[in-house]
Structures are given as structure tokens and as C-alpha cells.
Design a protein that fits this description.
Distance between the termini of chain A: 38 Å
Helix content of chain A: 40-55%
Structural class of chain A: alpha/beta
Oligomer: homodimer
Largest interface: A-B, 52 and 52 residues
Radius of gyration of chain A: 21 Å
Strand content of chain A: 15-25%
């Protein structure tokens, strides 16, 4: 193991649609940009990883901050999570998380099978006391900066106390990542009044109101991008749909703008001139810029990325993992949840 | 009552934040643009309506296509729907819907208290046989044209058979309004596989698959703007949140673009050049352009608009009501539902 840095992060070299090439490239980028700040442990088929490393001329220079841990098996995107974890005992996901559990690394990052990473993280790292359901929170752009949407797809059927847990964990994560001491928490609902929404939402409102969180009440769909709340709480069914909808907006605008520009020579010129500005705005909506999402509630730092992650996304996932470690989000969540048990 | 046209549409003159001024203006615009094609019956406080009519110099010319029916009471935006319907027996909403029930008019349009219009429409017009829950469907822009999101907020807790009803009614409405013979129907869910989603979604998938609809399976949040399905079915909790989120996108982009343009003189110039193009794209996302939404499943044509409707939105709501009448959407829905009972 590398000895020269405080934090070591295990990266699932086999996770993602273009692994290991893209993962190795992203990991090298992360190490190159931050030489010595942390080290990366690439987990997966050693030969394949070595082959990728050799394609990069400065691998030797960076090797002090790099290590490889062999794992002979790969859980594919098509694998059923629970079954794959049983049959593929030596998977890169399992081995990487074991490195974390035993303290060899302080975080685990994967762009592989999301369900498998979630299940394995919960099984291997365990849950923090007081957590019924680990959750995924996603930072989204708003007019005021960024907000955390939680749950972003991990739990489709939620009870009100799960929503409270998401709010508590999301509040700590948002506080650490957005640098806000006491982030505002809103319950995503269909109206401002307490009596609005389905039964789960009404009961969750009551629980949140009684909590020590900075609860600002219900927020509606239109409030999310306004930045009305720093933490927007919802179940994973709504969160997943909303998040994927949001991710599709840039492509929609691009298509509309292209169609507009094709309308006349003047419009074409307008399109050419405006392209840069639009691109810069769309960039904010692009998840690749921000890296993966954390699985909150497990006893460790586990970051999950899109299968289609680019090297940049992998790099940003690693940066996010490091941030979570250095800002001790895990301890913060443990302390916050202890107040509710 | 006006005798010179085939269709008469009752308009709630007292409904909306700026009634009756905005409503009267929108109604006059509708009549002016379509002289003789249909007539409008303004329902509400006669004196107040007359006063507004007198502000428009061509009222006399248009009067052949206009009528006023007095209603002494107004249900406010703050009123509790069911209570208000009991205490305010002579409300513009109640009187207008009675005109529809008795056949004096063929449609009713209101930008007033949404809950009250929904309850009163269901009570006074009754439900179509086979309808458990009347629903609201909203047309939204997609890369391919437009799609119908149903339920858009009328029913927060839905059973699987309600989702099937929404799909059947939405399919007929989309067919008539989008001009597609056999519109594709998608179930909004968190993944493509049948096994995805909460229990209600899984059972609804089974019902839709067994139906005679052109069911294309689950669609995800990212598929909505792509136009993967002509009719996107979901419960009203998800639909309301998604719709309000979508409506907030233009303001978000405007804020981001303004901030971008403020960055440098060159960017300012880019902003000025691109403004027209952006505005034209944003226009598509603006509900004011498209008018109100229909309450599907009641035994009549009832169109509900935003409280903040402009004269243009009121005009478009009236046009939509006329379209629904001339394309006989009501009969289409009755026939389609008869196949399932």
C-alpha cells in the first residue's frame, strides 16, 4: 500500500461501460492533479489494469500514489445484484469494499452495477446505527448554487421515518459539501400546506417539523431549481424520475436550439454566437462535471457513478470521496443520527 | 343565449387572480379571432362583467357571440373546495357547470380555485361510467412535438386500475389533440424492466400490458422530453411535482443566462444576440401558450387554468374547450372505457 499520503481511496477499475480504460485514465488524472494529497488503489484484474497503466507515459512518476489490488471477477451491469454478490466472491466491488472495511482505504468508488455497489456496501460496511435504509443523495444546480436531492433513487417505497432519516443524513452531507452550517430542509410535496400530499408525505411533514433540522416546510416542484431548500427530501421513486428528467434537459435544449438555428441564415449565426454561452450553462446540469453520488447511511464512504462515466467523472468521483473523508461526513452522520435514537 | 353558432362555451368570469378583467379580455380575444365559430357565455357578477366589457370598444360588434349569465357568489382561491360548494350555492363555478349539465353550453372553462372546479365538475356533471377517478392531463413539449402527462396532479394516491383509467382517457385525448391515431402509452417508472418501481407501478404495468392500448412499456424520467411516449402515465403526486419542476426551467435558464451575460462585454453581446432564440424556445415550455388542462372522466368538457392566467391563456383555454367539443373527445372516452367495463 502507498505510505506517503493520509487518505487512500479504492477505485473499482472494472466498473462502468468502458472499464478499465476510462477508470484508469480518470484515476491517473486525479492523482496527477493532486500529487501526494491522497493515493488510489485500483481494484480489479491486475493484468488488464497494468495494460491500461502502461498506455500513460507518466505512470511511473505517479506510481508512488498508486497501487493495484487484484480481483479475479467482474460484476456486470446486467448481473442481478444479490445473486452476483453470492456467485462472484472475488469481484472488484467486493474486494474494494473489503479493503475499506478493514481500514486499508478510507473510501470506495465505483461506476459499476449500481444495485450491486449498494447491496455490497450495505452488506460489507454495515449500516450506521439508526439507519433503516441507506440512501443516495445527488447535488443538483439551482439559481442560488446547489441543493441536495435525497433520496435520488435508492428506495422506491418509503415510510415516513425513512424520509426523516434521509433528511438527517442529507443535512449533514449538504452541510459538509456546500459549506452551510445549518442547511435548510424542504419536503418535496404538491403544495405548501401541511395537509397536502399522500399519507407518507403528511406524516413525514409532522416528523420533520418535530425534528431539530432547519425544516422550512413543504417545497414544490417549482421550488427545486429556485434553491428554496438546500436539502430536498423525497422518496426514491420521485427522486429518480425527477433526476433523470433534469439530466435530459440539456439534450432537449440542444435539439431545440439546433432546430431553431436551422430556421434561417441569421438564426444560424445566432446559434453559432450563442453556442458557447449555452454550453457553459448546460455544463452545470451535466452530472459528469460533478462526479458520482454517495451512499449515505452505510458505515463508510461509498461513491457510486454512472455506468457511462467519462474519465472526468471518475476523477470527480475520487475527489468527492476524498472530500467526504477529509470533512468527516461519516462521523457527522453518526452523531446526528444518535440524537434521534 | 346566442343562437348563431354551433358551440357555446361557459367561461367563469370570476375565476383567476385578476378576474374579471383578465377573463373578459381573454374571452373577447377568443371571440374576436374566431367570429361566429362559437359563442361565449360569461358567468359571474353581471355588473362587474358589464363594466369590463364596456372598457373594450368593439364589445358591441362582438355581442352577437357573447352572453352574460349572472352568478352572485365567487369561490376564492383560499376557499376549501367542498365547503365552498356547499355554502356558496350561487357561485360562478356552480352556475357555469349547471349551464353545461343542462346542455345550454357544451363546455366550461375556469381559471379559478382548481379544487373547487374539479369537485364541482365531478358533482354536477357526474362521472363517465367506468371512471373511478377523474384526472387532469397536461400537454408538455418534447423533442418530437408534444406528449400528454397524466395524471398531472388531480390524484395523489392511486391504485393500479386508476393508472389504467388515466392511460385509456389520456390515449383518447392525446389522439384527438395531437392528431395521432394510436398514440403510444408509457408508464413512468424508474427503469425499463417490468419488475421495476413500487408495487403500484408493477401492477399497473401488468394491466397496461394486457390492455388494448399501444403500450410501449415503462418510460423513465429521461424519456419524457425525448418524446418516447405520446402519453406518459403516472400518479398525481409524481405528475404535479414533475410538471411544476418543468414549468420552472425557463426562469432557471433565464437567471443563468443573465448571470452568464453579465460576465463580460463580449458575453453581454452574445446574450443580446441569443435572446430571441432562447425566448422562442422557452415559449414552448410556457403553459400560458397552451391554455388550461382538461378534467378527463367527467361527463362533460371542463377546462381548468392557472390562477395567474393571462388573457392569452384564457383565450387558449377557450380554444382548447372548443377543440375538445368539435373533436368529440367525450364520446371517444366513453366508447374506450366501455371496452374495459
Amino acid at each position: 500500500m502507498p505510505q506517503d499520503s493520509h487518505t487512500a481511496i479504492a477505485v473499482d477499475a472494472m466498473g462502468g461501460d468502458h472499464a478499465p480504460a476510462v477508470v484508469v485514465e480518470g484515476a491517473l488524472d486525479a492523482v496527477r492533479e493532486t500529487t501526494g494529497r491522497f493515493s488510489v488503489v485500483l481494484v480489479g484484474k491486475k493484468e488488464a489494469i497494468d495494460r491500461e497503466l502502461q498506455k500513460h507515459p507518466d505512470t511511473a512518476t505517479l506510481s508512488r500514489h498508486l497501487d493495484i489490488v487484484h480481483a479475479s471477477e467482474v460484476i456486470d451491469m446486467q448481473d442481478t445484484p444479490t445473486a452476483a454478490l453470492k456467485t462472484k466472491r472475488d469481484s472488484s466491488i467486493g474486494v474494494g469494499l473489503q479493503l475499506h472495511r478493514t481500514g486499508t482505504v478510507q473510501a470506495f468508488v465505483s461506476a459499476g452495477n449500481t444495485g450491486a455497489v449498494m447491496s455490497a456496501s450495505t452488506l460489507i460496511l454495515g449500516r450506521i446505527p439508526g439507519v433503516g435504509r441507506p440512501t443516495i443523495g445527488t447535488l443538483i444546480p439551482t439559481a442560488k448554487g446547489r441543493a441536495l436531492l435525497v433520496d435520488a433513487g435508492a428506495n422506491v417505497d418509503c415510510r415516513p421515518n425513512h424520509l426523516l432519516e434521509f433528511a438527517v443524513m442529507g443535512s449533514i452531507y449538504a452541510s459538509a459539501m456546500l459549506g452551510k452550517a445549518n442547511p435548510s430542509v424542504g419536503l418535496l410535496n404538491i403544495g405548501e400546506e401541511e395537509s397536502k400530499g399522500n399519507e407518507a408525505a403528511q406524516e413525514a411533514h409532522r416528523l420533520l417539523k418535530a425534528s431539530r433540522l432547519n425544516f422550512v416546510g413543504n417545497v414544490e416542484g417549482r421550488d427545486i431549481l429556485k434553491g428554496t431548500a438546500d436539502v430536498v427530501v423525497c422518496d426514491g421513486f420521485v427522486g429518480n424520475i425527477l433526476l433523470k428528467f433534469g439530466e435530459s434537459i440539456p439534450a432537449f435544449f440542444k435539439a431545440k436550439f439546433t432546430a431553431y438555428a436551422a430556421g434561417s441564415p441569421v438564426r444560424k449565426l445566432v446559434g453559432l454566437v450563442a453556442r458557447g454561452g449555452l454550453r457553459s450553462i448546460m455544463k452545470e446540469l451535466d452530472y459528469q462535471e460533478h462526479g458520482g453520488v454517495p451512499l449515505l447511511g452505510v458505515n463508510g464512504v461509498s461513491i457510486i457513478g454512472h455506468g457511462g462515466s467519462t474519465p472526468k467523472a471518475i476523477k470527480n468521483m475520487i475527489f468527492r470521496a476524498e472530500e467526504m473523508v477529509t470533512r468527516d461526513v461519516l462521523l457527522g452522520i453518526k452523531n446526528a443520527l444518535a440524537q434521534y435514537s
